[in-house]
Structure formats: C-alpha cells, structure tokens
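MODEL INPUT / OUTPUT PAIR
PAIR INDEX: 1
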Amino acid sequence: PRPRTGRWKKKKKDMTAQFESQKAKVDAMPEVKEMLKMQEQMKSAVKEYDSSVPRMKAQLPKMKEVRDKKAKKDKFVAQNKARREKKERDEKAKVKAAAEKKAKDEKARKEKKAIQEKADAEKKKIAGGGASWSPLTGLF
C-alpha cells in the first residue's frame, strides 16, 4: 500500500499559509518595521567596520612612523631654536657689557682728568702766587 501523503501535504500547505499571514501581520507592525530597519543599519555598520579596520591596522605602523619622525624633527627644531636664542642673548650680553665697560672707563678717565686739572691748577696757584726767581733780573 502507498502511504497517504496528500493529507500531510494539505496540512503543510495550510500551516505555511497561516504562518505567512501571521508573518505579514507582524511585519506590518511599526515596531517590527523599526527593528528591521535597525537590523539593516547594524549590518551595514558591521560591514563598514569589517572593511575599514584591516586597512587601518595595516596603515598603523606607517602612521606611527610618521608621528615619530615629526616628533623627532620638532625636537630638533626646538633645540636649534633654543641654541640660537641663547647665542643671541650671549651676544647682546657681550655688547652690553662692552658698552658698560667703555662708559665706566670713560667716566674714570674723566674723573682722573678732572683730578689732574685740579692738581695742575693748585700747582699754578702755588707757583704763580709765591716768589719765583727770574732769570732776566736774577731776583726773586
């Protein structure tokens, strides 16, 4: 005897139809629509992540190398700048010290000259005011 599959096929068809109608009702609900939309967004985000991350990881060593190279250059430039500024400060200090020394020497020279002139004036006063011997007359 042949098995009776017709009854089972009909039952399967009925159940499938019921399931599809229930699914259509559920899919029509706004909450479910929102969930399906979110699921699609999540899938696209995961896909974007999966495609981007390996590329970024591959670029990471080069990015680190560029960062380190820039940091090294910046440090070198800063050292050169500091060295140049120190040299300029030292030059200014030398020029200022030389100018101060020159002014001090000039002041000391003027003071010495004033003292010498005062001493010469005293000598003249003493020499001119007292008796002196004259070679013409032979007298004091």
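PAIR INDEX: 2
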Amino acid sequence: GTYLFDPWGDANGGSVLFAGDNGTVTLEGVTTVLSQSWNHGGVVYFEGDRGKLTLRDSTFGQSYAWAGNGGAVDFRSPGGELVMQNVVVMEATADTGSNGGAVHIDAAGATVTIDGVSLRKTIAQGN
C-alpha cells in the first residue's frame, strides 16, 4: 500500500485534489496521517459532474479541513458516484463552522455506497 505522512493542501484536498467532469479516482490500500487542507477535504477533495470516487481498504488518520467541509473527504459530483469500502477514518475534523467531520457530500443525484466503514472521533464545527 501507499503511506502518506503530513501531506498539506494549500486550498482543497490535503492529499488528493481532483476537479473535472466524468473523472475517476480510485484510492486503494492508502494510509494517510495528518493530511490537512486549508479549505475542503482534509484527505480528498473531488469535484466535477458525473465523476466516480472509490476509496477502498484505506485508513485516514488525523485529517483536518481547517476552513471547509469534509474533515477527510469532500465529494461534490452531481450525478456521480462515491464508493467507500473497508475504510477507517480516525480523528477527522471539519473546523470553523463547517460540515461533515469525516465525509461531506454535496452532490445532487449521486449514488453513494458505504460498506465496512468505521468513523472514530470525528468532529464538524457546523453540522
């Protein structure tokens, strides 16, 4: 697997930033520790119409979205698909009045599949 320690995103997505229509991103067997972004998606920020984000067999520990949504994941793909399978999110924070301590989804008409996901000590300062 892949191990990322202390990655930092100046805007969105502490470890991964994807922006574009009809895109596909798969993270499998990834471990992150202290992944942070100034805005949205402490680990992953995914934006664009009809995209697919798959997170599988991964662990995201101590992730922060300092001024935005989704302490670990912020998914914004109208008509898209989010799949999370066997994922552990520990100590994720969406700070400064934000939403989704672990995961924030703002994607009308999207399909979301969550299977075997564990959320521990997640905090959203908003909702």
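PAIR 2 NOTE: The mean pLDDT is 95.
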